[in-house]
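Sequence in, structure out. First:
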Amino acid sequence: MDKAFLENLLAFDARPDSVQLRKRSFELLEAGPGRRVADVGCGAGTAVAELAAAGADAVGVDAAEEAVAFARERHPDLRFELGDAAKLPFPDESLDGYRAEKLYHALDDPGGACAEAHRVLAPGGRIVLLGQDWDLFVIDSDDPALTRTIMTAAADELPHGRVARHYRALLLDTGFTDVSCEVHTPVLDPALAMFVVNRLATGAVRTGAVSQAEADGWLAEQRGRAERDRLFVALPLFLAAGRRPVTPS
């Protein structure tokens, strides 16, 4: 995770629709004064800062040293820890809220991470998962078949690129109750859209799903669309929430 990636993450986090979606996730988390909450896969620390501003006792956890260092630099008064989503640095039943955004697709074992969330949450505690399905980007293109091949390759390259569509089932299977799921679909601005399509094309070449020439042609079309103000990239984001039962389910 390099600084350029974290800067792009910050740009996405600053979008008004991203701000509103985080607020919605905090509502589902029931975050507020005195609530002990962890943001797992905290990245640059934006959500931790907002949770703390709302009065929550918030801590950010990330497995990437670069992310933790970056978050600490931006928010020196807040708490950030290096940690694995599969082995969190918290005692059993010690948290009121657990939040993970744009994380589970990168994990080798999302089910294990969800079970770990169940362990650290107190009875009645809330879990919120937020993220994209890498096989469901909406991209306007003159070549839909090639676009589909590129998106499929991106999803296949990740450990669990389609896990977001499984969030609801994952929470239920782990024993959470009061499970809900929402889908929010922001349309990306040109700079972020080009960042996304470049990343998708690069990944598709890396996996061998398309040739470099095919990727270059596809990207040239997308750049042409951007120049004519015809670029369109939308990103469905899945928001699922649940509660650890007060009594065993």
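Second:
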Amino acid sequence: MKGLVIDVVSGEIAIELGKYMEVKVSEKLPPSKAELIEQIADVDVLIMRVDPKIDQEVLEAAKNLKVIGVCSVGLNHVDTKYCEEHGIQVFNAPGLNGNAVAELTISKMLDISRGTMVANHDVKVLKQWDKYKFNGRELRNKTLGVLGFGRIGQELGKMCKALGMTVLVTGRTVKPELEEKYGVKYVTMDELLEKSDFVSLHTPALGDKPLVDAAFIAKMKTGAILINTSRGKNVDEAALLDALNAGKLRGAGLDVWFEEPTANHDLYSHPAVSCTPHIGAQTVEAQK
């Protein structure tokens, strides 16, 4: 059997698989779609994260493929229907990056609330020192709204409760046992948007229509901050930019983008946006 690793993952994966098969690590991590097609013909086990997209064209080139191991949570980049029809098993890693993503979410909440991004630029680049320019706000006594209260959402809720925040959540089903365990409250989407100072997305991408569009933002509390560490296609970036420029939202923290790498210069260069290149799970601990 042959295994192929096509992204930067823990080296222990190749070591463990190597006990059972021949394992190759792609020279380019991750490879382009065309490069993957060239490599995948005789591969039995594919180990990846989120790039490139595993569509029907890639799968048709993988004549021997039996297993895809995805070292992340989402599977929207894999044609799971084709895999199911052709007996290819697909495994992901739900919850293993929960702490890493939750910590990054809080980092972005603090960056925007305390103005640390602009302050850092002023001191290091502009050589300016003006502490009176940065009158930030604390997280304590603020309200966080969590959309999707799975493992990542639960980790975030636990951390934010420890910081003295009120945590509202919404999901497909109300789970009273989670309300009791984490001290959160399930509410309707409209109530969450109306009351939350921060809205954090932790849901998969569902269909082609963004979850956060102009109508969604209109229901949010004026001056709220949107955080997206889930999937880029969950947010209408044009509507978000309009809301930031109009002052409807005070800021946004984005780790994921509609297209990656993103070319949305107007959004990522906006002073009220904390942006990172999809690093939510990019910690030594989460990768291991």
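Remark: The longest strand covers residues 249-254.
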